[in-house]
């Protein structure tokens, strides 16, 4: 998944720790091999290559994942969308760019047959990309291993932006996680106290290891098909790492009213949004 | 006496033993060896202490002694103060067990006293110390040693001629963090030390309540030149000692400046000072102290070509820090029993994690009261009848250079130490 994975098990002996870590590594490799957007041998690559021409039957795991994405696409009024990858790829092309896609992308262009658990793409431009949920899904799978091995305390970080915690920090009553302020790296924007829960962060800006703020054009507004330019960050606290991942991508593009509707339907969850409009920072916290 | 102190004392003594295991470390810190030696409970080995000066510092020392006197096999048998409220407080702290005096000369006439602890205003240190030596007693004297360079030298000479112990209250020499730090600095962990910076900043008038106007100079003695050099003797002397300890020798020159630019309340001593001490190898020690801003607090920053240390906050920083993702910081925190926030990156697709470099701890992060440890060491030295001379020399060099710094500030000149004051 092109990122860094770290797991800390404070009270785990070496033997058990290595065993769990091996299982996790194998599972991550399995998910990567199956759902890589770029690997020509992956299951997802085959879907993307074939689903326009032919009805494509999904396995149970992929079908469930796709339904989950559909539900959250609906919940976020289309803002969370797994079909926008071709726009990002087109941004580097000299000709065409996002204008070539017209109205042909968007989840509505995936036709799902729930009876047969199969899909078909409405047009030749549609592609599925699980990149926005891969880490959350992997953390959800890892969580099951931790429960099976009765790991009570753990801190797992996927790329520094998708977190899964079990129990609490050995020296405290929770895991304290600080979210960076996009205008001042030395000051956190917010600190989440996490117990047995997950946190996912999305942003179109990030601090590189050099300490400089950098822009990434990977957040696409499904309404305009254009990459988001305004400095934005969202963070979602949830019991489910997959749900946190989906919603952090979704709510970053939603307005306050829509976010409030979602939080009301999700007891126990917490949202943070930070919008920087020409240097004026608006920070909202929802719970 | 609490369990935490007992546990930490054992840990510290174990640590001392480890330091003692290194010949180089032991040679540079010989005053620690005595702490690793076994305790004695024999009544005949009990050390009888007397304390002169029951002000804030004297009360603190009394509390410490009372709290662990049975462990170190010592007893505070007499106390003295010529200010009634202080003496009364001393009586309460010692539960009336210690004999009381208002004249230290009468106290020195007592027979059953092995050593004197002096915690009086600065200008009284010299004659009290010298008379204590003359009466055959060892002396623990709070820093700085004396109000003048001549008095400081007289104290040191009296210590040498009497053969009695002179320990000066530089407690950082017994602080586990400082001990580890200096050991590491001398081992080359931060490379060649090329500059030392230190400061002690407060934001208050440093004034004690005075019940009656005629007591102003007695109670607020730190504000008057006759009794004190203010920030120099009461604060800077500690950090000058640390710089000398790190550099393994005293400076060769000092220049400085100072003024009263904020607290224009009748005080005679500076409310802000700035100085530069130069060492023989060309290293500069830059020092400042103010009383109108506390933002930067108190710190000693030791800068080498491979790293830096901040001793008050127990931190070491490499000049080329390894990439420290949040997860490594978390592991470090868990191992050091620290509960801190875990900074995370931001964007979910970014393969690198931005983390501020906060440095690492110099030493294990447990609390150990260095004042108690230096008192324990003093008691053990008394039992032996001698203490490592380096303890007296560290105190002397710190005090004599503090006094010389005052002259440099007043004259506006860069001064070197006259030969007659060198030991």
Describe the structure in your own words.
The complex is a heterodimer of chains A (287) and B (423). With 287 residues, chain A is of the alpha+beta class. Chain A has helices at 14-35, 43-50, 60-75, 85-90, 134-148, 241-251, 256-264; strands at residues 5-8, 56-57, 110-113, 118-121, 154-158, 162-166, 175-181, 184-194, 198-203, 205-207, 213-215, 220-221, 226-227, 231-238, 270-277, 280-286. Chain A has a domain at 168-286: ApbE-like domains (T-fold, Roll), CATH 3.10.520.10. Chain A is built from seven helices and 16 strands. In chain A, the strands form five sheets. Chain A has a seven-stranded antiparallel beta sheet with strand order 1-5-6-9-14-15-16. A three-stranded antiparallel beta sheet of chain A has the order 2-4-3, with no helix packed on it. In chain A, a hairpin with a 2-residue loop joins strand 15 and strand 16. With 423 residues, chain B is of the alpha/beta class. Chain B has a domain at 3-173 and 370-391: NAD(P)-binding Rossmann-like Domain (Rossmann fold, 3-Layer(aba) Sandwich). Chain B contains 13 helices and 15 strands. Chain B has helices spanning 3-20, 23-28, 56-72, 84-93, 104-108, 125-134, 149-162, 176-186, 216-219, 231-247, 326-335, 370-384, 389-411, and strands at residues 47-52, 74-80, 99-101, 115-118, 138-141, 166-168, 193-201, 253-259, 272-278, 284-290, 298-304, 307-310, 315-318, 342-343, 360-361. Chain B is globular, with a radius of gyration of 23 Å. The two termini of chain B are 40 Å apart. Classes of the chains: A alpha+beta (287), B alpha/beta (423). At the A-B interface, strand 7, strand 8, strand 9, strand 10 and helix 6 of A face helix 11 and strand 14 of B. Strand 7 of chain A pairs parallel with strand 14 (342-343) of chain B, so a sheet runs across the interface.
